[in-house]
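Below is how a single chain appears once it has passed through the pipeline. First comes the sequence as given, then the structure the pipeline wrote out for it. We keep one example in the README because the format questions we get most often are answered faster by looking than by reading.
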Amino acid sequence: MALWKQFLLCLVVVVLAAGGWYYHQNRESAADGATTARQGGGGGGPMRFGPTYVVTDAVTTVAENDQVRSVGTVKVPRSVNVYPQVSAIVTEVLFKAGDKVAKDQPLVCLDDSDQRVALDLANVALKDAKAALDRAQKLASSRNIAVSALEDAQSVERKAQIAVLSAQIALDRRTITAPFEGVVGLTDISVGDFVTSSTIVATLDDVSTLLVSFPVPERYSGRLAEGLPVTAVAASKPDARISGQVTSIDTRVDPAARTLKVEASLDAAEANAVGVKPGMSVVVTLSFGGEERLAIPALSIQWDRNGSYIWVVDADTAKRVPIKVLERQSGQVLVSGDGLEKGDRVVVEGLQRLRDGAKVAELGADQTTRAEAEGGKPGQAGAAPAAAAKGS
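Resulting structure:
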């Protein structure tokens, strides 16, 4: 390409860049002029730089709410499968599913005819042994029997007592009883079934107390303590909450999941009313008491490349205050910021036209104050807010 063509191309590029810069500058000036005109009022009068009308809200304090939500499994402190100690035929089932039973209450009876006969024989043998011992003792008192014969009679009587005890134990094992107070579940056993020592004849759960086991992230391990309140929600009734408290904390963190196992006791009455059963899953919420934090409306927060900030009204002047967002709650945001205090007024509407140090007037303020800030009569106070709202 010839040299003069290169020079001409460079000249065109420079002219286009200068034209773009000029257009951009004129557009900003026009926008500023329109804003000034809106603030100066209508009616062909002289332009006046009045305050920017805004809506504000007060900074409040709210307790920081640090919560952990986890899915836990409901269990009971005692839950067993009941097995017979011997093999025999079932002769009677004394419960149905859902029955509450007391400790040592009979649940199932097995065939015990042989054991009753054995017990009768042992009692007869014991009676004979006692009679023989009485005769031996009488003869020994008159020195008409050897000492060894007396000792043999005593040994026979003792063996007879043991035989009766053994026969009674064998008979008692034919009646299966509840090891503790609780509620029995479903069973497949019926009269006539042959059961062995590996056959489950009943399930028994102690539902006087319900526990829930759930994992907690390891970062909360230093804040966990017994007695912390928890709430649980079951899928059977999501709108009902079950209260409880932490009862035990595991001593080890799971190295794979990086969680700590925690157990909490639930209110049995509330849980039973909801229909919670052992083995069910519930959503557990564990709340930690937090510090008092400054709270502002979510609409008041603005962002730019330097982070989040808000506008605070200080003596009818807008002041930009950088903040750090700590936690979001319903409609409010917990924040921290240098110079921000409880009771400060923060701007929630009219944020787009604010600049640091700009004069502002609250729409909720007294009408006379706004009229004086505008520079007109008190009777004209309603015109400025309407004009500001129309121009925004």
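Residues 189 and 201 are 6 Å apart (CA to CA).

See the next section for the split statistics.
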